[in-house]
Design a protein that fits this description.
By secondary structure, this protein is α/β, with parallel strands linked by helices. It has helices spanning about 15-30, 40-50, 90-100, 115-125, 165-175, 185-195, 200-205, 210-215, 215-235, 245-255, 260-270, 280-285, 295-305, 310-325, 335-340; strands spanning about 10, 30-35, 50-55, 60, 65-70, 80-85, 105-110, 130-135, 135-140, 145-150, 155, 180. α3 runs parallel beside α4 (about 115-125), α7 crosses α14 (about 310-325) and α13 (about 295-305) crosses α14.
Length: about 350
């Protein structure tokens, strides 16, 4: 990277995560940031600027400080590009970046699921691809407000490479908690296990905190988790711990009475009352979800080991039904979800 000029970081897919991470970098003013996203969001930011809503304060970034484009060619001079598009859009994003980027540019996947960084590596052979896991939740709200709703780190598979020092330092300087690892595979599986709950959020519309503190929603969540853990055991996959807690222990805790769950979860992470999964927002806005890349991965892994994952398979079906209906979140209560998950 050229140390004689400011670091240039691009955001490919300026949705909730892209706008939050890019917004924090733009607010810090230590780097040049270029956003690429939808024209509708560009217009909204032009009108309102970008508001970063943290737990205890708001930070406003004036529209004059936001360089927002709709074409990936605007990223041509970037040193680093953070890819934040939905999993289903990764191939298209890679195609656009292959035409735009210099071979020296580093491409970082900040996406859900397991397949995005390998796909980017395949489609961008000239560029170094770094895998990442976003350990926090962000909700995009009207008026170009990005609401940081759960605590957690940005986990990056940098292997402590010197080329990464400048952009990792820029993220940390911008107030983003960064954790660097040599092997991100266990972290990706751990995040996928947590993201299985996105389907519950999408189908119910319930905020994350309500789901955690509701015994019946927790019943759905632990049923899915236990099924997934059986599949991972059969495949010989060992996910990383969730905030230091093994997933089987977390399942055990979630089955305890609500007062115990409340105490344990409060010690693990901070959850804003408005926190919801992005899959819920996708349904509300009539967009395709990432359910095939989350619960669907458990179904595929089970099939590869001559197993079935009926609960996760049924949740995939229910989310696809909601996508086809096109009427937003079906607002299924926990009891309705439990009935829907029962075998015929």
């Amino acid at each position: 990277m050229d140390s004689t000029r400011p670091l240039h970081i691009g955001i490919m897919g300026a949705g909730s995560i892209g706008c939050y991470v890019g917004g924090r970098l733009a607010a810090d003013a230590m780097t040049q940031v270029t956003f690429v996203g939808r024209a509708s969001l560009a217009e909204e930011i032009q009108r309102h600027g970008l508001t970063l809503r943290e737990f205890d304060y708001d930070e406003h970034v004036d529209a004059s400080k936001i360089h927002f484009e709709t074409d990936a060619r605007a990223l041509a001079s970037c040193d680093v590009v953070l890819v934040c598009v939905k999993s289903g859009a990764t191939a298209d994003a890679a195609r656009a970046l292959a035409q735009a980027l210099d071979a020296k540019a580093i491409v970082v996947s900040l996406q859900n699921g397991l397949r995005n960084s390998p796909l980017l590596h395949e489609r961008l052979p000239r560029n170094r691809v770094v895998a990442g896991v976003v350990g926090f939740n962000v909700v995009m709200k009207d008026g170009a407000v990005v609401h940081h709703t759960t605590t957690g780190p940005l986990i990056l598979e940098t292997k402590n490479t010197p080329d990464d020092r400048a952009w990792v330092r820029a993220l940390s300087s911008a107030g983003i908690e960064v954790e660097e690892v040599d092997d991100i595979a266990p972290e990706r599986w751990a995040k996928l296990l947590v993201n299985l709950n996105n389907a519950v959020s999408a189908l119910s519309g319930a905020p994350t905190r309500e789901m955690i503190l509701s015994r019946r929603y927790r019943q759905v969540m632990t049923m899915m988790l236990d099924e997934a853990l059986e599949v991972l055991d059969a495949a010989g996959i060992r996910p990383a711990k969730f905030r230091g807690v093994p997933h089987r222990l977390m399942s055990f805790i979630l089955k305890r009475p609500t007062p115990i769950v409340r105490v344990v979860v409060r010690a693990q992470l901070r959850v804003d009352p408005e926190s919801r999964a992005s899959m819920w927002q996708d349904l509300e806005r009539g967009r395709l979800t990432e359910v095939d890349f989350l619960n669907g991965e458990i179904v595929l892994l089970a099939a590869a080991h001559s197993m079935d994952a009926p609960l996760n398979r049924r949740l995939v079906e229910l989310v696809h039904d909601a996508e086809r209906a096109g009427t937003g979140c079906p607002r299924m209560h926990a009891d309705a979800l439990l009935r829907a998950l029962q075998p015929d």
